[in-house]
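Entry:
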Amino acid sequence: MIRKSWLTLGLLSSMSLFAQDELIKKVINNASLNSKFEFRDVTNISTTSVKSQGSAGTCWSYSGNSFLETEMIRNGKQPVDLAEIFTARQVYLGKARNFVLFNGNLALGDGGETHDVLTIFRKNGAMPQQAYTLEDYGKGVIKSSEFQEGFKAILDAYVKNPSQQATWVKDVNAYMDEKLGKLPETFDYQGKSYTPQSFAKEVVGIEASDYLEFTNYKDSPYYEKMVLPVPDNWSYDMVYNVPMTELTDIIDYALSKGYTIAWSSDVSEPYFSWRNGVAFVPDMDLSNISPEQKKTLFDGPTAEKKVTEEMRLEGLYNLTTTDDHAMQIVGVAKDQNGKDYYKVKNSWGESNDYKGYLYVTKAYVQLKSTGILLHKLGVPKTTKQKIKVM
C-alpha cells in the first residue's frame, strides 16, 4: 500500500491488492549507505522472535499476534507462537460476508487493522502455529495477489447473481481450504486437546475487552469514539479520538509501566528507512524533498520539524498519511545525542541493520500514526477519566 494518487484511489479501495514487497522495496531504497545513527536501548520490553509476513499484506495480523504473544509474557505465561494466517483467514471470511451484504461495495484484499486480531480472538479464538502450519502465504508459491483475485472472483459471481448468495460461505471456505489449508476443528498442544476457543481462553488467557484503541483527527470531537476512516477498517470499528500529543503521552506512559503498543502507521515517506532502521521528520519541505537531500537524510541525527495537528490532518486528507503498515512499539532508546526514540518491532524478517527492529522519533509517530492499541492499564488515568473508561 504505497502512497496513493487520486487517479488510483478507486482501484485501491475496491481491490486493495498492494503487495508488501513493493512497499518494502520502496522503503529499503530510502537509505543512506553511510548511516551514522547510533542507538542505546533504555527500555526494552520482552517480546517474541521477529517473523516475516513475506509479500502478503498481513502486517496487521503479524503485529497484532506479536502483541498478544507479548501480553502472555507480561502476564507471566510461556508465550505461544500464534498462527497469523488463522486470524487472517477469519478476517477474509468476515470481509466476504460484508462484501456480499454490501453488494460488492467494500474493499477486499489482505489489509486489516490490529483490532481485527482482538475481534477474531474474542469470536473465533486462536491457534498455535504448530496446529495451523501454513507458512507459505506471501512467502512461497501461494501469492497473496493471486489468492485475493480468486477470492474476489468467487464473491463477484454471487453479487451478480443474488439468488445464489445463500451458498457463498461454503464456496469461500472450500477455496480457502484449498489455498490456505483446512482448519482443524480440534488440535493437540502440549498433550491436551483444544478448540481455537478453548485454546484462547485457557492458554493465551487474555480478556479482549481490556484493550483500547486511539487515533487523532483534529476535526472530530476529542475523547469520543469515531469510526476509524481508513480503507482497511472493513468492520467499521470505532476508536477513541484524542489530541495528537496525547497519543505519544499514552505510549510513553504505557512503556514506562511495561505495556507494549500495537501501532498502525504510514511508512512510505522518504524519511522512513527500513534498511537503516530509522524514521524521523526532517526539518525541511516534506512534500518536496530533493534527490540530493534524500542521499543525506540518514547520515546521522539532525533537527526535526515541529509537528502540528494541522500538518497531521492535512496529511490524512491528502492521503500522504495512510494506514499502510502495522508494527509493535516495544521500548525506548536514545541516539548518540541523547534524543529519545521508540523501539519498534517489525514483521519483515531480520533484513535490516537492527535485525528486524527500527527506531522511530516521537514526531514521526505524531505525524504518521493512524492508530494505537494497548491494554487499558497502560493508559494514563487522566485519559481514561476523559473517555469514561476505568
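The CA atoms of residues 188 and 194 lie 6 Å apart.
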